[in-house]
């Protein structure tokens, strides 16, 4: 990283715009940044850090933004820092502007503008700058990535603060560790320690949870085994818990298996006894069944003998029915013919009842002839039907003509009435339209005059108001100006008094053994003393703040006075000298006249539309009157033609219909007559046919009954049985025969006869003995099942416990490993002899690298006397790893860095800072740092040591580096030719370059 140029405006003590040409300063390799105390030397470094990271270093971070602004800057000048640098081979320009309260562009007071940032890169090919980003976050990430270090690392590596490294040199291990942790970002190793501790707690919780589940299973096994198991008296996490639970489970399973064996033997004996009792019960039940079977068979045989007469009678009826079945077809045929003849006779009588008396006794042929004559007459009525339909159409057309005539008469009457008043209505509408047009024209004329009148009235009112405000603003501006002059005089008096006694103020901070901030001497033989009425810095700053506030109030009053005067002039130019009351009266009168004219003229469009609609209506009604007259003339001729056609048709229909009234009525009468005659003829022929078929059926029935052996057809009909009765008789005969055979078979069985000869069996005693044996089997089975369930439950719980032990074994092993690692990383393990934490171990390695790099320069600065070494010894009861000692080659002894003198402490801390810069640079990825700054501390060195330190710093140029020394020691001005001087003044500090380039 090489700095080229820095431009800062209204930043810190610099009230205006100042620039630093680092290219010119870096050409000499070593340059001096000097100036009086409080002039702003450190502010230059703050500006570099602010441009890169958007924040200033160290304790000055508080109050970022608005407080970075210079108190000497003009109100309208914005604070800005621009840094031109080359990093990672890229030429970049970073501009940052913190938030600031600027005066409002309109009105009084201030407004807050947000912070702004801009990153540009120089394009060597195009020869121009190009914008990369305006985002604070993107610019910060880009700078951090290119430099490879955070703001804290940059402030330690590039802006070497000697006071901080002197404290680092003397700090204890804990403070030194915090600083190194920030620089080398070893937070990840602390996170490893934290993660290991969390992992240990998590695995410990898992082991305890597994032991608790295992112990719960042990208590469940105790409940299942009863008194056969005693659970282990251990707690979750205790060693040996798993083995104790598994051993107790094995004992309980063995006892349960013995109990199951005993219960199975008892069950086997009970089942044998039950089988014997069941066999005896089955034998008794079989004997009882056979004895009951023999007695039932004897009773059934007795009942069969009592029903033998009914059997013979049923057989006789079935035989007669079988003979009568040969006559059944003839009987059915005769019954069908008789039913058909009765239906035909009934239909014939019903048809003849509807005929005229002249045709009641006519035969079938006569009725058919009369029906044909009626049909022929019906066919001749078709032409009369068409004539009747045409007559109906003519009647409808005549009625339509009458309705149209009445409608046209109504239209003509209404149209004549409307047209009579047309001219009067049209004249009235035209008169209203003319009046509305005049009103609209007047409204347009008044509208042109209204807005200027309103503006003049508003300007006149503002003129009257501002005339009173101007005097008050003049008085306030005069009073605030006098107050600002008085405050400025008071502040300058106090400042002069303070500068006169500044030596006493500086002497108040001197301490024996510590270098003076002005000359660097550690001896203070005659420090100045404060006199009565001494003015300190706080009093001066308070007076300055009062003066600045008074000046701001005066500026605000002057600005407010100018604004009021400008507004008054503008209002007077617009309103003139006319009184406000007269302008208000003219404006009101003009407004009223405009309102009336606009209201009257607003009806113009509606009136024109109304006239247009009335004219359309006049044309429509005139056309309607003409069309109605034409329709009336054509209807008269049409009506005469219709009347002539109607008279001819009425005469023809009267001749055809006779007394029926209409053709349809005559046709309906003839259709009904023909249908009746046809039905009667068909019924007469059907009755004659059925009478002949009935006669033939009677002859066939008499012949069939004689051949079947019956005297008359009636006797054959009585012998027939219907299907239900026949089936019932046959079923009864079949049941009797089946029952008779079954009884004979039972009475012939040898075992049944033998059982009947034996004494009656005692079934109750046998059932009681069998029930007792079954109850004993159930009790034995219950005992066996309980033992089996106990054994199964113990086996299940034992298997689950064994599985849990196997599953918990890896977790327990992991817990042991993690616990050892966590204790080792935390420094609490016995294996960690030096009680060094993991983060401290990493930092110790970095500190060892820093000590080695610092020794290279410290040996040269101290003429080979001192060497920095890293120590990992423990201090007291604390932890080891971050000790730092110095080896004195003159005595050959190693001692603490706190024993070094003031000058020795300075060049030792400088060597440490340079060494740390090299290590951090390598850690950050090897980013080349071509520009370094060393802030203060050179006043504590003697001439020889100062020459050696400057030689070491000058040697940095061998790597093409430039080193800036920040100091106010006068001797350095003679030794270092390239200088950047900060000049302090009342209007702010300025920068001046000398001997550069």
Structure description:
- The longest helix has 79 residues, at 422-500.
- The strands form 4 sheets. Strands 2-1-4-5-8-9 form a 6-stranded antiparallel beta sheet. The chain has a 6-stranded mixed beta sheet with strand order 10-14-15-3-16-17, sandwiched between helices. Strands 11-12-13 form a 3-stranded antiparallel beta sheet.
- 24% of the residues are buried.
- The model has no long low-confidence stretch (mean pLDDT 77).
- The protein contains 26 helices and 17 strands.
- The protein has 997 residues and is an alpha+beta fold.
- The chain is 68% helix and 10% strand.
What keyword list fits this structure?
single chain; 997 residues; alpha+beta; six-stranded antiparallel β-sheet; six-stranded mixed β-sheet; 26 helices; 17 strands; 68% helix; 10% strand
Count of runs of 4 or more consecutive helical residues: 26
Largest sheet entry: 6 strands, antiparallel
Sequence stretches where pLDDT stays below 50 over 5 or more residues = none
Secondary-structure content class: alpha+beta
Backbone shape: flat
As an assembly, this protein is single chain
**What is the radius of gyration computed over CA atoms, rounded to a whole number of angstroms?**
68 Å
Blueprint (SSEs and pairs):
Blueprint: E1 2-11, E2 14-21, H1 22-26, E3 30-34, H2 41-53, E4 80-87, E5 90-97, E6 100-103, E7 110-113, E8 116-123, E9 128-133, H3 136-147, H4 151-157, E10 159-161, H5 162-170, H6 173-184, H7 187-225, H8 241-306, H9 308-324, H10 328-353, H11 364-379, H12 382-420, H13 422-500, H14 502-507, H15 537-575, H16 580-601, H17 604-657, H18 663-708, H19 713-719, H20 723-747, H21 750-757, H22 763-826, H23 838-861, E11 866-871, E12 883-888, E13 893-896, H24 902-923, E14 931-935, H25 943-955, E15 962-966, H26 971-975, E16 978-983, E17 990-994
Parallel strand pairs: 3-15, 3-16, 10-14, 14-15
Antiparallel strand pairs: 1-2, 1-4, 4-5, 5-8, 6-7, 8-9, 11-12, 12-13, 16-17
Helix pairs in contact: 5-24, 6-23, 7-8, 7-22, 8-20, 8-21, 8-22, 9-20, 10-18, 11-18, 12-17, 13-15, 13-16, 13-17, 23-24
